[in-house]
Amino acid sequence: MLASIAVILEVMENVSSRTLRLLSLLQNHRYWPGGELAERLGVSPRTLRRDVDRLRELGYPVEAHRGVDGGYQLAAGAALPPLVVDDEEAVAIVVGLRLAAQGGGSGTFPEAAARALAKVSQVMPSRLRRRVEAVAAVTESATWGNDVPIPPDVLAAAAIACRDCERVRFGYTAASGERSQRHVEPHRLVVLDRRWYLVAYDLDRQDWRTFRLDRITASPKPAVDLQATGARFRPREIPGGDAAAFVRRTITTSAARYDVEVAFRAPAATIRARIGRWATVEPIGPGRCRARMTPPGNSDWAVLALGMAAEDFEVISPPELADRVRDWGERFTRAANVAVRGEPASSARPEQG
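Structure (tokenized):
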């Protein structure tokens, strides 16, 4: 979103503060009458025209409209020139990028947000960085799937290290709870199943590894969570050539997973429209279908997906899924009974010690 540091410095060296003020005004309003714009800047119409020409030389497509009501406006260009934003706008940009990057999902948007966040974070003054941290500390993202939030600094540092081909060190907590220190060459960030993964070459183990960003911790304390070493590396080719495919293969073979099979008393088209993104659905008779899925983590994810189908179903496998469905059903039944009787929720069930 912001231009490179070199371009920004060039702008600052060659453009007067008045011209930067002109740029800021043009970016804030679609159209400025010439007389009003000159008055805001405290200059003559002739000086205003020179400042507009200077902006054009720097790549800003400023359009001039002649006549009694003539004025100026900033048009869309073929490339994005440096933007000028005030402190409040800069804070809003970074907070928005953090929420977008951590919002989960799939596709290129979260990854693009992470790349933009890395660029902005590099050039942000320390005074604004403190304001961003204060806003982020009291902001929560209402998204699905991320059990543990990703520290924004880890996300930004990982994106910068991948871009700059710079080796990093960090502490890592595996799914088993085992902690280790890692020294890696980071290559790509991948968003999969609403989680962020770092694809890197582990220098100590001499092999490729996948790391979940929410499991990266400071190493050693009180250092930052993911610390750049300053050592550059030549990029290696990721196995198979596709980072996302590599992550999918890794988590499929290493994570604790199980197959779910459920029979719905509803047409396949109905179930496919509601949970088809998470399950393979096929018809098994008039008004009936079978859904198969391989959820990550525990069975609660599968129960949630089945509930979203909003149709009657029977659990075929695994047997423990039926126990979890029963547990959820009892919990919701208690909640419904409380709502009918108008009792406080805390009295519905004795508190467990």
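The chain is about 45% helix and 20% strand. The CA atoms of residues 77 and 272 lie 43 Å apart.
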